[in-house]
Amino acid sequence: MDIKIVKRGTWLYDGTVEKPVDIIALDYDWWYELAKADGMLEPDEDPEPLGKEGYIYYVRFKRALETEGPNWVDSCGHQELKEAIKAAEAKVSGGIKWHL
To answer: CA-CA distance, 26 to 90, in Å (whole number)?
Structure first.
């Protein structure tokens, strides 16, 4: 499975070590599918609806820049890219330098 990276950036861990971050676009609710695969869905649980561009956006720190699965995300899903950018920036001190 190829992973669609829509935004890449770097941030400074402890103010000194440059670390990657990215935002990926998926055409499904990653957390819903994980719960479904693990048999952990609530009886009335539904997937998060896709955004108007047909995607849900997720922030990745741990597996940032990996382009092949399996995948892991580090945020909830966001229907708009700008929401995912805000969520990523809220997780680090010192900000993120976006490259793409």
So the answer is: 21
Each residue of 66-75: pLDDT tens digit?
Answer: 998 888 999 9
Phi, psi values for residue 21, rounded to 5°? -145, 150
Distance separating alpha carbons of residues 40 and 35, to the nearest angstrom: 5
List beta partners, residue 3: none
Per-residue tokens: 60 = 């990745």
CA atoms within 13 A on the CB side of 51: 15
Q: Residue 59: in which H helix or E strand, if any?
A: strand 56-60
Q: What is the CA radius of gyration of the chain?
A: 14
- How many whole angstroms separate alpha carbon 87 and alpha carbon 71? 19
Q: Which residues pair with 58 in a beta bridge?
A: 24
Whole-model pTM over 0.70: yes
